[in-house]
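Below is one such protein, fold included:
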Amino acid sequence: MRILIFNLLDLTRLNFEDTEEVIIEFFQKAQSVLGHVAAVCIFPRFVKLARAQFANSPVKIATVVNFPQGSASISAVLIEIDQVLQDGAQEIDLVFPYDRYLGGEREYCRDFIATCRTACDRNILLKVILEVGRLKYLDLIAEASKDMIDAGADFIKTSTGKITEGASLEALAVMLAVIKDKQVQLKRPLGVKVAGGVKTVEQAAQYIQLADHILGKDWVTPKHFRIGASQLVDELLT
C-alpha cells in the first residue's frame, strides 16, 4: 500500500513564503526507494525550476491557477494559464469560481472552465478544484462535479487545502459516483484528486479503498487517481 500511495502522490508545496532553495530541497522527496510520485505541485513562479529539475524524469509538473479563492477574472486566468504552459507546466489544478456557483451563476462557471480547457493543449491534464468544504451539500458537490466534467475537466479535485474543511469520504463517494457515470457517457478517461487534510497513510488508504469499491481496483492508478499532500510523504518515507 505504501508504494501505491507514493506513486499516486501529487507532492505538494504551496506555502506563500517559500523560496527557490526550499523548493529545490522539497523536490528531493519526489523520487525514493518507493519509486516516484505522480507529480509535484507548486506555485506558478516555481514551474521553470521544476522543469529543469525533472527534465529527464517521469514526474509530472503541476501548478495551481486561480488559486486559492477562485475569484480572478477569466482574462487574468487565461494570462496565467498561458504563462505556466510556456514555463513548462504539464498539469493545471484550476480553482473554479465556486462563490459564483453558490450564487447561482452556474452557466458562467461552466463557460469559465470550458474557456480554460480550450486554452490548454489537449495533452495538458486539467484538474478542476471544487472546494467541497465551501459547497458543503452532497447534492451540490454532485452537480458541480457533473458541470465541471461536462465543461472539460479531466480530473475533479476536492479542495485547495487552504480552508479548514478539506476532503471527506462522503464528498469523494459522490464525486466517484459521478465519474463512474460520466466515463461511460462521455467515453473518455476521468479522474479524481483527493486533497486537503490527507496527512497519514491510514487516511490515504481509506480514500483508495473507497475508489476500489466504487470503480474497481484496476481503476486506481495515477492516470485516474491522485492524492495531493505535503506531509504524507514524510510518513511514507520513514
